[in-house]
Amino acid sequence: MLRRGEMAIIPCRNGKKTAELIHNHLKEICSERKDILSKRKNYFTLYEHRQLEFIDYVDKYGIEIINPDIKDFKDGEISITITESVRGKNVYIVQNTLDPENPKTTSHNIMELVLMVETARRSFANEVTVIMPYMSYSKQERRQGRQPISAKVLLDILNDSGADKLMTMELHAPAIEGFTGAKHLTVENLFASSRIIDYFVGKKKFAGLFVAPDAGAGKMVGHYSKVTGLPLALGYKFRRPDSRHDSEEQKLLGDVKGQEILIIDDQVATGGTIINIAKVAKEKGATKAYAAVTHGLLLGDAENKFQKAVKENIIDELVITNTVIHSEDFMKRNKYITPLCALKMFAQAVFESEVDGSVSRLYDVKLRKSMFGTNHHAPE
To answer: What residue ranges define each of the domains in the chain, with the CATH number in brackets?
Structure first.
């Protein structure tokens, strides 16, 4: 029988920093919950008992990080060995499939992840969860002519290699969750909304107008508006059929004159969409233009484009989370970028999974009701 706390975190090579941060956050969460529960004297719910059981195990044995032995052969093949036993344990495999400084390694990183999942499964792990904060190929979730549905292919491969669950954040299209059957690989899609709302609205930094740069971002921006009570404006764009990131034309529906605006999107790749909609807003009289995105890919000439936009007073601040890890040098070069930590949410999701809790408790009540409905309850 599995004891609560018998778990292991295994980082792939490009997931080491992320795994370390999740590990540290998970220890902090255990300490915070222990302090809260220690103030309870008599009555404990079943959920609280499960927390105590998990925390007690972690206090005694710690949270195990296993660094596997990974090698590249001269022919490009990958060799993987998990160096310690994972038999009967809940295994969390962490991989950042995108390295923004070397994006051509994405598919190689995915292959490494798949082999790691297969290795854990063949090593008799009890359950295998993949933590992929940014899901590569998520923009290829539908066909245009003779094309694959690449997002589904990736999930099929993870499923067939033995993964039980995928933890990710802010899928480009939430319907991607439906690409897998409920009896096979399940997808835990987290949202960075609470972090962004707390930074801008909770700290009274912003009280203006939310802007969705395109129709795809409209629903999420609607939640921001509903939770905070602030108004919104909608953008729309026309994109070339042969491009995943660049648009030909953008428009903005809504009165932004004299207003600060906050552009919300799930990801920024080359920066064209956000910079263009900010430029349109400034031309229409917006006083400041902030942007907040979950996945700061910032590929190609995005760095130069944003630096130019900041210099020309088009963008005032860009907020990203650490679902994609950038180098210290990159962050030092781009002082206009404010990083927020989203990885604690993954640690919280791991904790809730280990104690059979509810991931919904990661979000405050207002946001939870807006996103999941008024009948959706979670332990407080």
So the answer is: 7-192+343-372 (3.40.50.2020), 193-340 (3.40.50.2020)
Burial (CB < 10 A; 0-12, 13-18, 19+), residue 154, is buried
Tell the residue number behind the tokens 């971002």, with chain if given.
Answer: 217
For the chain, give the number of residues. Answer: 380
Catalytic annotation, pick one of 165, 237, 282, 344 = 237
This prediction's pTM: 0.93
Cα distance between residue 343 and residue 168, in whole Å: 10
Q: What is d(CA 357, CA 346) in angstroms, rounded to the nearest whole number? A: 14
Both tokens of residue 362? 């990661």
247 beta partners: 239
- Beta strands of the chain (E only): which ranges? 7-11, 64-65, 69-72, 78-81, 90-94, 127-131, 165-169, 186-190, 209-212, 232-239, 247-253, 260-268, 288-296, 317-321, 337-340
Q: Is there a catalytic annotation at residue 237?
A: yes
Count other C-beta atoms under 10 Å from residue 58's C-beta. 22
* Chain segment 81-119, per-residue pLDDT in tens: 999 999 999 999 999 999 999 999 999 999 999 999 999
Half-sphere exposure of 143 (CA within 13 A, CB side): 6
Q: Residue 324: count other Cβ atoms within 10 Å of its Cβ.
A: 22
